[in-house]
Amino acid sequence: MSTDGDAVLARLLHSLVRDLLGWLCEYPDDRVDPNAVVSIRRSIDWVIERLPAEQRRRLATGDPDPASLETVTGLLVDLVWWLDTCDDDDVDPDVAVKLLESGLTDVDALSDGQRQRLLEVLDQLAASEQHDGRRYQLRCFPFEMGLVDDEPDDEEPPVREWVRPEARAAGSAPAG
Description:
By secondary structure, this protein is mainly alpha-helical. It is built from 8 helices and no strands. It has helices spanning about 5-25, 35-50, 55-60, 70-85, 95-110, 110-130, 130-145, 165-170. It is globular. The mean pLDDT is about 90.
C-alpha cells in the first residue's frame, strides 16, 4: 500500500478510536464509569504524547500521516483489549459488546488492500512487542475483528487483563 493509502488507513483507524471513546462518554454513569473513560483516555494521550510533534499535531487535527499508522493501530488494539477485559463496573458488558460490534462493522468496511495492510502492521507490531499480553492481543485482534477466519494458536497468557502502555513501557506489573 502506498504512503497515501497508509495515511487513509491511519485516518480511518484513528477515527474509529475517537468514535469509540466518544460513544463511551454518551452512556449514563451507571453503564460506563466516567473515571474509567478518563483513565483509558489518559493512556491513549500518553502514547500520543510520545510521538514527534508533527505527528501529534496531525493526529489532533484528524489528519494522521502515514507514519502514524502503527501508533493508531496499536491504540485501536489497546482500546479493544481494554473494552474486552475491563471490569463490569467500569463498562457494562452489554455496552462493551455493542461498542466492539460497532468497531467490527467499521473494520468490515475496509477495502481488501486496507485489510491486508492492517494485517501487515499488526504482524509487525506483534513481532516487536515485548509485553506477552499485548503481543497476544495483537496476534488475536485479526481473528476477533473478523479480518481472518482462523484463530491463532498462540497460548493465552495466564493473566489477560489490559495493561496500561505506561506500565508496559516501564516493565511494570498490570495496572488496569
